[in-house]
Design goal:
The protein is built from 34 helices and 25 strands. It is α/β, with parallel strands linked by helices and 828 residues long. It folds into 3 domains: 107 residues, no CATH class; 379 residues, Rossmann fold (3-Layer(aba) Sandwich), CATH 3.40.50; 238 residues, Rossmann fold (3-Layer(aba) Sandwich). The strands form 6 sheets. Strands 1, 4, 7, 8, 11, 12, 13, 14, 18 and 19 form a 10-stranded mixed β-sheet that branches. Helix 7 packs across helix 34. It is globular, with a radius of gyration of 27 Å. The structure holds pyridoxal-5'-phosphate. Pyridoxal-5'-phosphate (PLP) binds next to helix 7, helix 25 and helix 26.
C-alpha cells in the first residue's frame, strides 16, 4: 500500500506543471482579481490569501477529478464521523503535498514576499480539543495520500477551541475566530443542504399491512449547510473532502409563529438553530451533560447520514442490499454514537425495512474507536433529555436494548448483574443512556488506540462484550502524518534525511530505519545535532518574541506539550523542577547540565485544579526566571495558546519529550510520536503508545520510569496513602510545603495550596508522589546521558530512525485491512 501510494506520489510531483513564473502570475492575478489590491498595497495577510487562492485552483481541480473518478468507479468509501478535526494551518501542508513549496518560496521571494512570514498569517483551524481531533486530521491526510475513497464528517464550529492568554500567570479564555477574515480553503455547498428534526413527539399508527408504524412529529427543524474543506494527499493526486455542517434556522417551522405576529419569537427560534454549531465544547474527556452538546452530536450525524444515503441512492435507488458494500462508518469515540439509532430510524420508519434486516445493515456499517478508560469521560445521557430532544431515538434505543438483553440472557441465564452491567440503560433515579455500550452493541468492530489500551478495554472496560463476541474488540495503534510532523515542520532535518536515504520516506516511513546505520557515524551525528541546534535557536527567538524570556539554546530543551490534565501529570514535572531549584539553592555547584523546561497546555475552563496547575507553573517560572542565582542552570517557560501551529515550532527543537502519565490512563498519546520522530528522547511511563515506542527504539534510547499498570492496580488495591511518601521523602515534603508559602506568590501565601492539597488530603488519585522518586532518578540519568554528546546524538538519531511504525499510514493500513475492507482508487 505504501509503496503504491509512493509510486503515485513520485509520478505526480513531476507532473505538476506550474513553474515559478506561472506561480507568480497566478498569485498576482488573485491579488488583483480576488482581493482587489495590488503588489504595492498588499500586506502579508493579502499575500497569504492570494497565495492560498492560487493553490486552491489546483486543489479544486484535484477535488473535481477525484470525485468524478470515485463516482465512475462506484467506490466503497469510509466515512469518518468525528465531532472534532484539529486541522491546524493548511497552506504549508498543501504546498508540500503538491510538491510546490520550494518553487512557491522562490516565486514569492522574487515578488519581495517571504513565504514563511505569510504562512504565519493563517489562523489555525482549531476545531478540536487535542489528541482525538488531531488524530482525525492525521487520518484524513493518510487516507488521501493512500488514494483511499474517504470523507470526513464533522461540525463547522463558528468558534474553535478557545484562544488562551496568560495574565499574571492565570489562564484567560478568549473566543477563537478562525473565519473572521474569511477562510480561503472552504467551499459552501448550498446544493447539499440537509434538514434535521428535533423535539416533538412520536405517533403510533397501524399501517395498511397491519404493521405498527411510528411517525416522529418534530417540534423543530434546523438546516445543515455543508462546508467542504479539500484534503490534499501527498503527491496531490487524490483530493478528498472534509465536510463540516453549519446549523441555520429553517424557514419551515418559523412561519407559523411569524404569521401569528410573533416576530420576536420567530427570531428567537433562529438564534437557537444557529447556536448549534456556534462553539466547540472545550471539555477534554470530561462530560458536561449539556443538552446543546447532544444536539450538536445528533445534528452532524443526521446531516451526514442523509448525505451518505442521498449519494448511495443516486447510484443504487431504493435497493438497500448493497448499502454495506458501499458504506462503512467509523465513529471517532462515542460522540457520533447517536448515528446508530438514527440509521435504524431511517431504515425502519422511513424505508420500512424489518427490524432484523435494518439491524443487520446497521451492525455491518458502524465501527467504533474507544479513546479513554477514564470513567468520568464515558458519555452517558439522561434518558429524559433524549426523550425530549429525540423521542423516537429513545424508543429505538430501548428496542435495541430489549433485544440485546435477550441475547445476554441466552449467554448468561438468570445473571442479573451481568445484564445490569451490559445494558445500554443505567437504571437509577435518573435513567442514563450509556453511549459506550450502545456503540459496542451497534458496531461490527471496536478498537482501542494502543496495545495496552486495547488490552485494558478487553480486560477491564468491556470484558463481557469480549466474551460474547470474541474478535470484535481489537487494537489499532494510533499514528501521525509524517508529512506535517516532519517534512513540513522540520525542513532542515527533512533535507538532511533526504540527503542520506532519499526522499521517499514521507510515504514509506520505515525507510527511516536506514538512518540507524549512521547513528554512530561522527559526521552524521554532527549534522543531526547541528540541525537540532539551529531549530533550538529558532525556538529561542520565538520564545523571546512571545514571552520576553531569554533562553540558552545550549541548554537541554525539555518539553511537555499536551492538554492540561491531572492524569498527564504536569504537576509531577513541576515538582521535579522545584526540586532542582532547591538543590541549586542549597548547593550552587549542584552538578547538572543547564535545562529549559517548556510547557504548552490549555485547561478546560471548568477544570479548576487544571487551571491552578497552570497558575502554579507560571508562578514558579516567574520566580525561577528572575533568580540570577540559578539562571545559568534553570529556566521555565509556559508558552501561551498551545495549538497545532505552535506544536510545529516547538517539536523540532525538543531534546526531551515528557510523557509521564499515570500508567493505564493515557490511551495512546500522539504527541509522544511527533516528538520522537523529530529526534527528542522520551522520558516516560509504561503507558499508552510509550510502551510501543520503547519497543521500537530499545531500552537504551528512552528513559522509562515509574509504576506499571499492574503495580498501579496493586498499590491502589493495597491502599495508597500519599502521606507515606510525604513523610518519607524529604524533597517531596520540602517542595509541597514550599507551595504553601508566598515564595512563588509574593504577598499571597496559600495561592498554590490547592495543588499540594490535591496530592495529600485529595488522595493523589494519579499517584504523583508514588512516582516522584523514580522520576527524579530518571531525570538524573537523562542529564548524565546528555553530557555525553556522542551517546545523546546516537539516542536522538535512533529515535527518528525507529519511528516508522507510527506513521498514520500504518494505522490506516490496519483499519483498511482489518476493519474497513477498502480498496484504493487511483486518480489520474
Ligand atoms: C498532537 C497534539 C495533541 C495530543 O498530544 P498528547 O501529548 O498525545 O496528548 C494535542 N494538541 C495538539 C495541538 C497536538 O498537535
Amino acid at each position: 500500500m505504501n509503496a503504491k501510494a509512493n509510486a503515485f506520489a513520485r509520478q505526480s510531483l513531476s507532473d505538476v506543471k506550474l513553474n515559478k513564473s506561472e506561480i507568480k502570475d497566478t498569485v498576482v492575478r488573485h491579488l488583483h482579481c480576488t482581493l482587489g489590491t495590488d503588489e504595492n498595497k498588499a500586506n502579508n495577510h493579502a499575500w497569504w490569501k492570494a497565495t492560498s487562492a492560487a493553490v486552491q485552483e489546483l486543489v479544486l481541480e484535484g477535488l473535481r477529478k477525484t470525485q468524478k473518478t470515485h463516482y465512475l468507479n462506484d467506490t466503497r468509501a469510509v466515512h469518518y464521523f468525528s465531532a472534532e478535526f484539529l486541522m491546524g494551518r493548511l497552506l504549508s501542508n498543501n504546498l508540500h503535498n503538491f510538491g510546490l513549496f520550494e518553487k512557491t518560496n522562490q516565486a514569492l521571494n522574487e515578488l519581495g514576499v517571504s513565504l514563511s512570514d505569510i504562512l504565519e498569517e493563517e489562523p489555525d483551524m482549531a476545531l478540536g480539543n487535542g489528541g482525538l481531533g488531531r488524530l482525525a486530521a492525521c487520518f484524513i491526510d493518510s487516507l488521501a495520500t493512500m488514494e483511499l475513497p474517504a470523507i470526513g464528517y464533522g461540525i463547522h464550529y463558528e468558534h474553535g477551541l478557545f484562544r488562551q492568554e496568560i495574565k499574571s500567570g492565570v489562564q484567560i479564555e478568549r473566543p477563537d475566530s478562525w473565519r473572521d477574515y474569511g477562510n480561503p480553503w472552504e467551499i459552501c455547498r448550498p446544493e447539499s443542504i440537509q434538514e434535521v428534526s428535533l423535539y416533538g413527539y412520536v405517533e403510533t399508527k397501524y399501517g395498511e399491512n397491519g404493521r405498527i408504524q411510528k411517525e416522529w412529529h418534530p417540534g423543530s427543524i434546523v438546516k445543515g449547510v455543508p462546508w467542504d474543506i479539500p484534503v490534499v494527499g501527498y503527491g496531490g493526486n487524490t483530493v478528498n473532502v472534509l465536510r463540516l455542517w453549519q446549523s441555520e434556522s429553517s424557514d419551515y417551522f418559523n412561519w407559523d409563529v411569524f404569521n401569528a405576529g410573533g416576530y420576536i419569537d420567530a427570531q428567537r427560534e433562529n438564534v437557537q438553530a444557529e447556536t448549534i454549531s456556534k462553539v466547540l465544547y472545550p471539555n477534554d474527556e470530561t462530560e458536561a451533560g449539556k443538552e446543546l452538546r447532544l444536539i450538536q452530536q445528533y445534528f452532524f450525524c443526521a446531516c451526514s447520514l442523509k448525505d451518505i444515503i442521498r449519494r448511495y441512492k443516486r447510484a443504487h435507488g431504493d435497493d438497500w442490499s448493497r448499502f454495506t458494500d458501499q458504506v462503512v462508518i467509523q465513529l471517532n469515540d462515542t460522540h457520533p454514537a447517536i448515528a446508530i439509532p438514527e440509521l435504524m430510524r431511517i431504515l425502519v420508519d422511513r424505508a420500512e425495512l424489518d427490524w432484523d434486516d435494518a439491524w443487520a445493515i446497521c451492525t455491518e456499517t458502524f465501527a467504533y474507536t474507544n479513546h479513554t478508560l477514564l470513567p468520568e469521560a464515558l458519555e452517558r445521557w439522561p434518558a429524559r433529555m433524549l426523550e425530549k430532544i429525540l423521542p423516537r431515538h429513545l424508543e429505538i434505543i430501548y428496542e435495541i436494548n430489549h433485544r440485546f438483553m435477550a441475547e445476554v440472557e441466552k449467554k448468561w441465564p438468570g445473571d442479573n448483574a451481568v445484564k445490569a452491567k451490559l445494558s445500554i440503560i443505567e437504571e437509577g433515579a435518573d435513567k442514563m443512556v450509556r453511549m459506550g455500550n450502545l456503540s459496542v452493541i451497534g458496531s461490527f468492530a471496536v478498537n482501542g488506540v494502543a496495545e495496552i489500551h486495547s488490552k485494558l478495554v478487553k480486560q477491564n472496560l468491556f470484558p463481557e462484550f469480549n466474551e460474547l463476541w470474541p474478535g470484535k474488540l481489537t487494537n489499532v495503534t494510533n499514528g501521525i502524518t509524517p508529512r506535517r510532523w516532519l517534512k513540513a515542520c522540520n525542513p532542515k532535518l527533512s533535507s538532511l534525511i533526504d540527503s542520506k536515504i532519499g526522499d521517499d520516506w514521507p510515504t514509506n516511513l520505515s525507510k527511516l530505519e536506514q538512518l540507524a546505520e549512521f547513528a554512530d557515524n561522527a559526521r552524521f551525528q554532527k549534522q543531526f545535532m547541528q540541525v537540532k541546534q539551529e531549530n533550538k535557536q529558532e525556538l529561542a527567538d520565538e520564545v523571546k518574541a512571545l514571552t520576553g524570556i531569554d533562553i540558552d539554546p545550549k541548554a537541554i530543551f525539555d518539553i511537555q506539550i499536551k492538554r492540561l490534565h491531572e492524569y498527564k501529570r504536569q504537576h509531577l514535572n513541576l515538582l521535579h523542577i522545584m526540586t532542582l531549584y532547591r538543590r541549586l539553592l542549597e548547593n550552587p555547584d549542584y552538578d547538572m547540565h543547564p535545562r529549559v523546561f517548556l510547557f504548552g497546555a490549555k485547561a478546560a475552563p471548568g477544570y479548576k485544579l487544571a487551571k491552578d496547575i497552570i497558575y502554579a507553573i507560571n508562578q514558579v517560572a516567574e520566580r525561577i526566571n528572575n533568580d540570577k542565582r540559578v539562571n545559568h542552570k534553570l529556566k521555565v517557560v509556559f508558552m501561551p495558546n498551545y495549538r497545532v501551529s505552535l506544536a510545529e515550532k516547538m517539536i523540532p527543537a525538543a531534546d526531551v519529550s515528557e510523557q509521564i502519565s499515570t500508567a493505564g490512563k493515557e490511551a495512546s498519546g500522539t504527541g509522544n510520536m511527533k516528538l520522537a520522530l523529530n529526534g527528542a528522547v522520551t522520558i516516560g511511563t509504561l503507558d499508552g503508545a510509550n510502551i510501543e515506542i520503547a519497543e521500537e527504539v530499545g531500552d537504551d534510547n528512552i528513559f522509562i520510569f515509574g509504576l506499571t499498570v499492574d503495580e498501579v492496580h496493586a498499590l491502589k488495591f493495597k491502599g495508597y496513602n500519599p502521606y507515606d511518601y510525604y513523610y518519607q521523602n524529604k524533597e517531596i515534603k520540602a517542595v509541597l510545603d514550599w507551595l504553601e508559602t508566598d515564595y512563588f506568590t509574593p504577598g499571597k501565601p496559600g495561592a498554590l495550596a490547592s495543588v499540594k492539597q490535591s496530592l495529600l488530603d485529595g488522595g493523589d488519585p494519579y499517584l504523583v508522589l508514588a512516582d516522584f522518586e523514580a522520576y527524579c532518578k530518571a531525570q538524573t540519568d537523562l542529564d548524565a546521558a546528555y553530557r555525553e554528546p556522542k551517546r545523546w546524538a546516537k539516542m536522538a538519531i535512533m529515535n527518528t530512525a525507529k519511528m516508522g511504525k507510527f506513521t498514520s499510514d500504518r494505522s490506516i493500513t490496519d483499519y483498511v485491512e482489518r476493519i474497513w475492507k477498502l480498496s484504493s482508487c487511483h486518480v489520474d
